[in-house]
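Appendix B. Chain record.
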Amino acid sequence: MPTVDISQFEDSFTIYFGSDYSRINAYTLATTLVGIADAAKAANNNLNPGYEIEVVVEALAPGSFKATLRTIYSEAENLFSKESLRTVVLAVIANFVYQHTLAPDTDVQISVENTQVRIIQGDTEILVPREVHEATQQVESSTQFRRGIGNAVRAVEADSTIDKIGFSPDEEQTPEVPIPRERLASLSEELAGPSAEERDMLEITDLQIVRAILERSRRMWQFVWNGIRISAPLTDEQFYNEFFAHRITIAPGDVLRVRLRVRQRRDKDLGIYLNESYEVVEVLEHRPRSAQSAIPYEKSDDT
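C-alpha cells predicted for this chain:
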C-alpha cells in the first residue's frame, strides 16, 4: 500500500511537477510558490503567534521538475510573550492537500492513535503526527490559508503540460503518492466554493479583564480585546481549579493570554464575516496588572 508519512515534511519538502518536460512555465512555478508561501504565512500566524516565517527556495531540479522549499522561523519583536514554536507549517500544507485530493469515490478509514492519525482511503495510506493533525484542523478554516492553497492549485491545474504533482522529503526522491492533475479540480472547486454562513475561528490573544465571574458557569466575563469591549464565558475548567485552589489571584485590569474562540457569521450584503460571539476556551498565561513582566500561568499536575 503506498504510504505518505507527513512527518517527513515538517522542515522542508520538494514539490514534484510531473511532466514530459524537464522545464516548467515560469508563471506556473512562481504562482504556485507564492500561493504556498501565502498559505504558510497564514498558518504560521495562527499556530505561532510571536514568530515570523520565511519560505525559501533551496533548489530547483529536473526529473520532471522539482522545487525544494524550506521554512525559516524567527522571533518577532515587541511582543509580551510567545508560545512554544511549532515547526509544522509545511507538514500542515502537505497534509491538507493530500487529504483533500484522495480518491473521492472510496470510503475513508481514520484511526486515531497515541502519536499519530492513520488515514486510509482506497489504496493510499497517510500517516499524520497528532500535532500536525490538530494544527491542520486549527488553520484549515482560515480564509488566507485556503486562498493561498487555492491559488497554488489553480496555477498547476491551468498548466496543461503538468499531469501530476506531489511532495517528497528531498529532491532525490519522487513522491510515494503523486496526485493526478484531474483531482486538483475538485480541490480548486472546494476552495473557490461559497463560504459557510457561520464559522469558528481560534485565536491566541491577550484579554484585559474588566469584570470577572468567579464561579463555574457560562455567565459572561467582560474583557477589552484589541481596544474593544467584548463579553465571553470562560470555560477552561483547569483555570477554575487553579483559582479555587488559591494558586492564582485575579483582579480587574489583569491580562489573560488565552485561546479565544470567535464565532463569526457571514454578512450576505457585505460579503464578509462579522464577529458574533466569543468564548475563552483555554487560559495560557496570567499577568497581574501591577506586574512589570509576564508571569507564566502553569497548570499544576495535581488538578
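Further analysis of this model is presented in Appendix C.
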